[in-house]
Amino acid sequence: MKTNVLGYPRIGADRALKKASEKYWKGLITQTELEAAGRAIKKLNWQLQNNAGIDFIPSNDFSFYDQILDASLAYGCIPSRYKQILKDKSQLDLYFAMARGFQEEGEDVTAMEMTKWFDTNYHYIVPEFTKNQSFELLSTKAIDEYQEALDLGIQTKPVLISPVTYLLLGKEKEAGFHRLDLLDNLLPVFFDLVDKLVKSGATYIQLDEPCLALDLSAESKEAITKTYTQLAARFPKLKVILTNYFDCFGDNLDTVLKLPVYALHLDLVRCSEQLNDIINSELFNPNQTLSLGIVEGRNIWINDFEKSISTIEKAKNFLSPERIWIASSCSLLHVPCDLDLEKNTKNLPEEVKQGLAFAKQKVDEIVTLAQLSARDITEAATVKFALNTQANRTKKTSALINHFPTQARAASVTEQDSRRVSVFKDRQHLQHKHLNLPLYPTTTIGSFPQTKEVRAWRAKFKKNEISEADYDEFLKTETEKTIRFQEETSLDVLVHGEFERNDMVEYFGERLEGFAFSDFGWVQSYGSRCVKPPILFGDVYRTAPMTVKWSAYAQSLTEKPVKGMLTGPVTILQWSFVRNDQPRALTCKQIALAIRDEVIDLEKAGLSIIQIDEPAIREGLPLRKRYWESYLNWAVESFKIAASGVKDSTQIHTHMCYSEFNDIIKNIAQMDADVITIETSRSEMELLDAFVNFKYPNEIGPGVYDIHSPRVPTLNEIESLLVKAGKLLPERNIWVNPDCGLKTRDWPETKSALINLVKAAKIMREKSAVES
């Protein structure tokens, strides 16, 4: 049987791409040096897979920022505001400007919108489309990388995003058309790209069509049929691998089975039953190849070889072995690079580690499963099978996993535990009286810039190079400086800056039972932003306060209210590698109870405002609507359990970013947070429409500047956005804040941006006073 990997992590085992990219953006290395760093990562990835014995190795799965942005550049889909940059700068600088914005040499151009990649924590850059838009083959990256691998003696299958999925993932930037109307304009450029790949020697092409995991319209299905029919007619000898992942084909299955493609890839981790659906369908062609995605690309637990072999044997009853490929369920982009690098048994006990597999290990699992399914099984494969069986049994019976008091507490939760004492209208009156804030109150989302110095002190403390007392003194100094800056800037609600925190999820995982940690478990979130998700392997509970010390210290420094800052239960769940031996709803409830305890302790410590961030609520939504209600019920309940243990006068905030809210606005209202802050600046307040149309009753902070870009928003820009918000919402319900936390920004740009933010809020108050 052949083996197939859909994509490999592109950041490097120790984030080499992140480090090189950020040096390039700061002018510390040249473009040539950045490209050399990229080539080194690609070479290692290709050689690792080739040496392991993978038959179908991907190329064009590498990206300097995002694969959808790569496609926009390839197809010449460049918004008009970047045309001057295209003339003046290199193609790579244009590319980064589209992702990050551009503000220098008299030019000031905003970044493109960014949103979540299906139900993952990866973000992509949203394509922008205009009516009758034309396309051109602008970037030959896919061809260049195919040739790059070929020069190393490695034959690869280029990975391309399908034209249909590409269009569906974008947005119309003017009225009067649907983005699928552009398919006829895009297809000739797409075929030109494919033609150049074929002429370069490519015999297989992986066409990613993840929109097939969604509920598609008849028009979308027709566009898919048209694309593949024309592709087959143009390139009759090309072997197209149609790749879907993250869910079943569902209602799209009949359309898919009629397509003239060489191979179908199935995500059998997310949708194990679809193998039966396909092989039992009258439309299935037994001469077609099936790529069985049985090694999970989304989580880090080892494969269950016994279960996977059973699936393979089922396929062998209908297909000859040469028509069966063993594959990752999706790209391995979503898992860390190499478990072999993990040597810290204190953070990652051996009993937990033996149940894990990172990208390199998953490649080995794919090859081993193919060997175990062969007629002549090797001795090495037999040994691996025995070790895998033992590790899975150990995981099920481990004493590390079970904490019976936590299980009992979660089982005893009642409806009352997820309900505030009074309704919002009554709470709002008490909170306004207690906090005495002006109209358009200003605040930030939580974190302030984590400088090299902050990160260096944290690293020294973790390595025991400095004492806890010395580290605490440093944190006190940084916290006080940040409080004083916020007071001087006249922000209304302050934050302590979170200098003691590494990551908004990892920090809490380190202080909760049931979590383990890696040293090199980095995955890409967007661009150069990498996160190291905690490993949630057992029952979750809190043994001591986690944030009270620094929040209470910050409040002691000022008369202004300071927000306690917490990450919500759904986000901790979503942004961790979550145990797969019990329902996610139950795990989330356990986390919610631990956060509830922290909320109550913050209130006792004198914090009148507590923010429970839930940016991952929308991300966790199942891809098919029929599963939404079940998920939203337990997700909303978990947030309310965490938030409902406080007095009415305590104001609960939550934060969400880069999400489409229209379909779940009712559920967001059910969360009953007193204040919600959301990302709206990249979309020009477009995301606010959902709250307005729903008549969202609680208070809202629509983000007025984009923290994912280094550019500083102008005063007029922020004021303009607030004027838009003021026309849509009651003034008493509007907060003024950035889109997200400021951790990744530098201090100079942060100070300039917040000064403009406060000035804009004061202008709006003056206008309101005049009008009244």
What does this structure look like?
The chain has 772 residues and is an alpha/beta fold. It has two domains: 325 residues, TIM Barrel (Alpha-Beta Barrel); 348 residues, Alpha-Beta Barrel (TIM Barrel). The strands form seven sheets. An eight-stranded parallel β-sheet has the order 1-14-13-12-11-10-8-2. A five-stranded parallel β-sheet has the order 19-21-22-23-24. It has a three-stranded mixed β-sheet with strand order 15-18-20. The model has no long low-confidence stretch (mean pLDDT 94).
Keywords:
TIM Barrel, alpha/beta, single chain, 13% strand, 2 domains, 28 helices, five-stranded parallel sheet, 772 residues, eight-stranded parallel sheet
Second-tier CATH architecture of the largest domain? Alpha-Beta Barrel
For the sheet with most strands, the description reads: 8 strands, parallel
Structural Rg: 26 Å
> Fraction of residues in helices?
40-55%
Write down how many β-strands occur, each being a DSSP E stretch of 2 or more residues.
24
Shape: globular
Mean pLDDT: 94
Number of domains: 2
* Cα end-to-end separation: 76 Å
Determine and state the CATH class of the largest domain: Alpha Beta
Q: Provide the CATH topology of the largest domain.
A: TIM Barrel
Tally of individual helices: 28
Strand content: 5-15%
Uncertain ranges: none
The neighbouring-strand order within the major sheet is 1-14-13-12-11-10-8-2
Structural class, from helix and strand content? alpha/beta
